[in-house]
Amino acid sequence: MAVVLLHPDTDRIELVDVLAALGHPLRLAIVRALASGEEMFCGAILPEVPRSSLTHHWRALRESGVIRQRPAGRKLYLTLRRDDLEARFPGLLALVLGEAESRA
Amino acid sequence: MAVVLLHPDTDRIELVDVLAALGHPLRLAIVRALASGEEMFCGAILPEVPRSSLTHHWRALRESGVIRQRPAGRKLYLTLRRDDLEARFPGLLALVLGEAESRA
What we know:
The structure is a homodimer. With about 100 residues, chain A is of the alpha+beta class. Helix content of chain A is about 40%, strand content about 15%. The first copy, chain A, has one domain: Winged helix-like DNA-binding domain superfamily/Winged helix DNA-binding domain (Arc Repressor Mutant, subunit A), CATH 1.10.10. Chain A starts with 14 loop residues before the first helix and ends in an 8-residue tail after the last helix.
């Protein structure tokens, strides 16, 4: 059975959904783990948290447009949709990740 | 019976709580209604939405540090904690309210 993972197109990513997705400690930690932009195997992100506790968070992050999930065999690989989020809400991700430059 | 409304001190406002508070369509609409910075009677905000649907949203916004609620007699007045949020997370509120300047 093929895994179908729905991802919103960039222009369908909604601010309220992104805020809701980011507004959870585990999801914020996932986003921080992915901040470098590198694709990661989902088992390598927050390995100390039981996988069963994370499954619905992957989905919340994916369906809101925050991450991309790519199935490869029985594994799932995750990337942060940095460029898409930046295109929709410039500065938001940097701010949430604490990367924002201090302002004069 | 005195109404006790707990508000976090500015330095106790947490990003994840603010994001969660903002990550709901009604709460985002409330914040937008308060964006001017003026104090508003809660009944004047989203008057088309039943009050019973809003009560727990006031609380979510207050407990996360997004708004301040001031009881006056039997009424509640609300203000957006703009300065406090700006002090904690510079630029976040402007970005969420769509006030961010476009960047070169």
